[in-house]
Structures are given as C-alpha cells and as structure tokens.
Amino acid sequence: MDHLIAPSAADIEALAATTLAALPAPFGTLARDVVVHVRDLAPDDMLDDLDIDDPFGLTGLYDGIPMTQKSVLDQPQQPDTIWLFRRAILDEWAARGNVTLGALVSHIMVHELAHHFGWSDDDIAAIDRWWE
Asked: What is the pLDDT along the chain (132 residues), one digit of tens a residue?
C-alpha cells in the first residue's frame, strides 16, 4: 500500500474540467464563466455559514448568484465559483466503493452547476436520487 498516492487537487480539478467540457449545449455556454477551486476541506467560516459541523460532510459548494436571480444591472462582486473539497470527496469515494472518482466528481459538479442555473436542492432531489 505504500505505493498508493491519493489523487491531488490538480487531479480533482482535471476531472471537473472534463465534466465542464462534456456539458451539452446550451449548458456548456451557460457554465463557461464559472470558476472551479479545489481545496482539501471547506474552511471553518464556510461550514459555520452553512451550519455544518463535519468538514467531511461537504464535498462541493456553489458560491454565486444563480442565473435566475441575476440582472444585467448587477455589478459582479466575484465570479460564480464551484468549490470542490478534495478530502471530503475522497472520503465519500472510499465509503461508496461502487463509483469511479470521475463519476463522483462529475456528479458533484453537475449538482453545483444546477444551483448556478437556479435549481434548489429540492428541485435537484426530485430528479436525482444519487445521494439517497
């Protein structure tokens, strides 16, 4: 087991980029300005804002204004961002044991992109049973 190395932040970022590149039109165009950042774990202030105690409970987060709420008159304060949390993702990947890392990262990306497009967690859950 000494020769095994956990996938890096760059590996997770590459999987996220593959997901973005594979989005069908018009979603790819709508997602082109979303920035993806990979960190080991969510920072404490982010977890506090979300009322989450366990940093391993958050694999990804959309941080921005959903497209359904944007106005052409708004001045952007920051780019719409998807945060991916590497250690939480790897923990879930190991716990599941039945999906590839690429499939998991892709699923997290699509979930967070759905928030960018204006979907709520309830909207997503109505058609996506992945997390059950």
From this structure: 556 788 999 999 999 999 999 988 888 888 888 999 999 999 999 999 999 999 999 999 999 988 888 877 777 678 899 999 999 999 999 999 899 999 999 999 999 998 998 888 787 777 766 655
CA distance 129 to 104: 13
CA–CA separation, 72 vs 76, rounded Å? Answer: 10
Residue 122, token pair as written in the block: 């309830």
Full 3-state SS string of the chain = CCCCCCCCHHHHHHHHHHHHHCCCCCHHHHHCCCEEEEECCCCHHHHHHHCCCCHHHCCEEEECCCHHHCCCCCCCCCCCEEEEEHHHHHHHHHHHCCCCHHHHHHHHHHHHHHHHCCCCHHHHHHHCCCCC
* Whole-angstrom distance, CA of residue 39 vs CA of residue 96: 21
